[in-house]
Automatic annotation (TrEMBL):
UniProt keyword list: Bacterial microcompartment, Carboxysome
Domain of life assignment: Bacteria
Record localization: Carboxysome
InterPro entries: EutN_CcmL, EutN_CcmL_sf
Protein name according to UniProt: Ethanolamine utilization protein EutN/carboxysome structural protein Ccml
GO cellular component terms given for this protein: carboxysome
Lineage per the UniProt record: Bacteria, Bacillati, Bacillota, Clostridia, Lachnospirales
């Protein structure tokens, strides 16, 4: 799982049937000092997060477990983070 900051929305007019009803978001992983690190990522938003929020994201088989085994999703938002401590 990753802790990420939501950067924006990703609009797709055509997407897989298994993703209908879910929005896509752009985000960036956060490091221990809560700064952005790495490349921009896209995830399926199943909970309705907003731009600027810190979210918990799962990848791979964990992501498919949320949406169903037939889903093509590789990253899914599974929670909104209120606080976290890296000490």
């Amino acid at each position: 799982m990753y802790i990420c900051k939501v950067q924006g929305k990703c609009v797709s007019t055509i997407k897989d049937e298994h993703l209908k009803g879910c929005s896509l978001i752009t985000m960036q992983r956060l490091n221990k000092t809560k700064g952005p690190v790495g490349e921009m990522l896209v995830a399926v938003d199943t909970i309705g997060c907003s731009v600027g929020e810190t979210v918990l994201v799962t990848r791979g088989s964990g992501a498919r477990a949320v949406l169903g085994a037939e889903s093509p999703a590789d990253m899914v938002v599974v929670g909104i983070v209120d606080t976290y401590d890296c000490n």
